[in-house]
Amino acid sequence: xxxxxVGVNQNGNxxxxxxxxxxxxxxxxxxxxxxxxxxxxxxxxxxKSSIDNFYGGNGLVLYASKAFSCKEMYRIVGSEGLGCDxxxxxxxxxxxxxxxxxxxxxxxxxxxxPDELEYALKSxxxxxxxxxxxELEIVESLAKSLSVKANVILRIKxxxxxxxxxxxxxxxxxxxxGFALENGEAFEAxxxxxxxxxxxxxxxxxxxxxxxxxxxxxxxAAEVMLQFMADVRDxxxxxxxxxxxxxxxxxxxxxxxxxxxxSEYMEKTAVTVKAKAEELEFxxxxxxxxxxxxxxxxxGLTLYTVGNVKTxxxxxxxxxxxxxxxxxxxxxxxxxxxxxxxxxxxxxxKTFIATVAGKCCESGDLIQENAPMQTPEVGDIMAVxxxxxxxxxxxxxxxxxxxxxxxxxxxxxxxVIVKRESYEDIIKNDI
Length: 431
Ligand SMILES: *Cc1c(COP(=O)(O)O)cnc(C)c1O
What we know:
Blueprint: E1 6-8, E2 14-16, E3 19-20, H1 21-28, E4 32-36, H2 37-55, E5 59-64, H3 71-79, E6 83-86, H4 89-97, E7 105-107, H5 114-123, E8 127-130, H6 133-145, E9 150-157, E10 179-180, H7 185-195, E11 199-205, H8 216-236, E12 242-244, H9 262-279, E13 286-289, H10 293-296, E14 300-312, E15 316-321, H11 330-334, E16 340-342, E17 352-357, E18 366-373, E19 381-385, E20 405-410, E21 413-418, H12 423-426
Parallel strand pairs: 4-20, 5-6, 5-13, 6-7, 7-8, 8-9, 9-10, 9-11, 11-12, 12-13, 15-17
Antiparallel strand pairs: 1-2, 2-3, 4-14, 14-15, 14-19, 16-19, 17-18, 20-21
The chain binds pyridoxal-5'-phosphate (PLP).
């Protein structure tokens, strides 16, 4: 199977984390997001032990929580000793409400508002990852008025092409994120941060792209960043101690996707970091990494009920489900690939080809086109696999469809961690 969380039981039903998907659908209704806590924890430990093994523990794994954000998720990653990234006041609020240690929260984003920055500084977040000159000015003036020193990391565009979809590629000069190296912006920002009385410049950050399935772009980015750190030392006489290498490790969504073991990214990048540091006679910095989808995508799936099957002769077959772009907009956004199973027929061969259509009033509301699956019938439970990242977190109420519930399975035992929205929830802010 495409995810190690998923299997087939003696009834021929799909299982996730040992729980029967058909039973889950019956108990909690559909659409339903289901996560396997054991796999989430296992992946957290894999990343954490890589930091221990390859950097002697001098580093921290930050879960990029935009991939899947809710209180229970912050509790789980926090209990595994990870920090986290947040990119908005709402994510910060959720993390703090879950009791997350603010010291281990990094605040990202290309347009943090003054209110959000004030909230972050007052909460005592560990680092603010500054994106632009205006932000540096706002942070300096807020920190001054709050009489605090803001710990800042600067986001740098290292100019690496990571061969992924343009919408999830962030490392090149025309990206909206961060300071470019090529045109001197990164040095200007460094000078500005160093000149600010209430900013402590802790280090630099890069995040080249998402869903990268090669190690080379990460190694190249690490080299470029270390070179920049050495250049900063030579130019300004300041040796910063922290290097945040971002996330973006690719996962398998369909059988033909390549997937490199996460420890391999870590090992190869560590070898590069250490070699480059030695060459530049630069002390090996404290390393941060920011995996998002790699921690949650393979640990989650979505269950739907098939409402109708519409065969348009010589054209295609649509299988209509009771969810769609409201709970998973990723196919509509960037034609994301997914693997589809009929959960109550999981031991049958996947000989049927169909397009999975959502229930929203948009022709583009598709979950997958031309997907192989077991022969679908009305009332079947459909599972779309590896939807743990960027689905619940991107969910909307389009068509006033209620957001789905989230169930966490641990050792075969399910529990609700996010309730299904009610109709009352839908109108709660309407006056
Ligand atoms: C989105 C993001 C990540 C995580 O990316 P994944 O592909 O989910 O691993 C990490 N760091 C930053 C700054 C991001 O914007």
